[in-house]
Amino acid sequence: MARIVVVGLGSMGLGMARVLVGAGHEVFGQDISAERLDAFLASGGKAVPDNRADAAPDVIVCVVLNAQQTEEVLFDPESGWAGHMAPGSVIVSCATVPPGFACEMEDRATRAGLLYLDAPISGGAAKAAKGALSVMASGSEAAFAKAAGVLDAVAETVHNLGPKAGMGSAMKSVNQLLAGVHIAAMGEALALAVSQNLDLRQVVEVVSASAGTSWMFENRAPHVLDGDYTPRSSVSIWPKDLGIVSDIAGGAGLPVPMARAALEQFKAAAMAGDAQADDAAVTRVYARAAGLSLPGEG
Question: Is 130 a catalytic residue?
Answer without folding.
Answer: no
